[in-house]
Amino acid sequence: MWRVWMLFDPRRALIGLFTFLFTLAIVIHFVLLSTERYNWLANPGAAEAASLSSPAAAESPVALRVSPTPEG
Predict the structure, then answer these.
(1) Which one of 29, 47, 52, 66 has the minimum C-beta count within 10 Å?
(2) Which residues are within 8 A (CB) of 32 and not within 5 positions of it... i.e. 6 or more apart?
């Protein structure tokens, strides 16, 4: 492993890595902001309203009912 760091300067490699990761994070956030569903700035209450009105949320209490003893 030490031979790899003899080929590359560790400071430049880490700065390049952090720059790439920061750019990737910014791109992902802008892609999410460009969608209607995940835009948390334009309509911040839409995520909570969507999760409350989804059919899965309405069925979840029924799906969580478990009998205490196995039938049969």
Answers:
(1) 66
(2) 38, 39
